[in-house]
Amino acid sequence: MEPSEFKSQSDPSDNSNAMVLWKFDNPYANYKKDAERIFVLDGYTLRISQKLTEKIDITKNTGNIVWDGAYMLSKYLVNHVEGRGRKKLRFLELGSGCGLVGLAAWIKGGYVVCTGTKTDIEHTRTNVEKNVELVLSQQQQRMELEVIEMEKARRARNARELLKEDIDVRVLDWRKLPTMDLITDPMHLNNSKTFDIILASELLYLPELHRDLVKTMMYYCHGKKSEVYDTNETRVLGIYKQRGLGEDAFFEIARVLGKFEIEWIDTSYWTNLHPILETYDDQLNHSHEGDNPPFKAYEICKENTLYEKMYGSVCQTLEKELSWVGCYHLQLLLK
């Protein structure tokens, strides 16, 4: 909604009586179709550019805009995902799009690789580079203004200084993973290594890519000899909205082909959806089964103490933090 104004009838050139429609913090204002969207994550302001001039459909340009799931996964990351000790969590984001989720993981102090195809990776790179500089500037201002308090807080919560070199943007095609002879490819395992957490936001709308997506997740999972946190587990944390596009088929492939374990958290059915969350869905031609599609989530096995340290009590926090999301699903796969 753009600011509108009307002029005094006595003087058409006089803007002194102009009226700007209320937008800041207005719950009824829709920011989803702005060329630049502003998000605040962990106290840092991000400015995410969207490419609105190109037509978006199920097969192209889906990474041009910030989907609702990306915001929800970003919020979950900054609120509930913590590292352990002085070791950095290694994040791989698949299908980064506008880069919001990868930036959220970086803000939490992780090492992050954002990925996408050759056709959309420059949009990701532009957003990441712009916002890394923006966040580093804000970090510097914090340190200059509150250096003593910041240092005390940093030691207290074992926080890390954010570094530019801890986030990267690379091309990755799920259908053409680097082979043994492509050792110069930055995403070859010899170069990229494996990852602690793989992020997957709004990626399940093309069933023909589910098998390739699972293979990609398997490729970057820790092997049995991994020494990260003394565990062999890589976690895939993702989110998707049930649009009737065959999303559920992904999980059967993940179980059978990927040998992944999937554990769901039972949640109630959400009825009063936030009205703004329905933006863009018409461009994917989705449909729902029933009037109240469920919000479903899952967690790792409760006896895993590493999970409790990293994620806290998901059962208690999800309902409190995400109760208005509607039919989103959170997924956590274990390798």
Radius of gyration: 21 Å
CATH architecture: 3-Layer(aba) Sandwich
Shape: globular
CATH fold descriptor: Rossmann fold
Provide the β-strand percentage band.
5-15%
Number of domains: 1
Q: Count helical runs.
A: 9
Largest sheet: 7 strands, mixed
- CATH structural class: Alpha Beta
- What is the helix fraction of residues, given as a range? 25-40%
Strand order of the largest sheet: 5-4-3-6-7-9-8
**How many strand units?**
9
Unreliable stretches (pLDDT < 50, length at least 5) are: 1-10, 225-230, 265-280, 285-328
User: What is the string of SSEs from the N terminus onward?
Assistant: EEHEHEHHEHEHEHEHHE
Polypeptide structure, described:
The model is unreliable at 1-10, 225-230, 265-280 and 285-328 (pLDDT under 50). It is built from 9 helices and 9 strands. Helix 1 runs parallel beside helix 2 and helix 3 crosses helix 4 (147-157). The protein is α/β, with parallel strands linked by helices. The strands form 2 sheets. The protein has a 7-stranded mixed beta sheet with strand order 5-4-3-6-7-9-8, with helices on both faces. A hairpin with a 2-residue loop joins strand 1 (36-41) and strand 2 (44-49). The chain has a single domain, classed as Rossmann fold. It comes from Acaulospora morrowiae. InterPro entries: Methyltransf_16, SAM-dependent_MTases_sf. This is 16203_t:CDS:1.
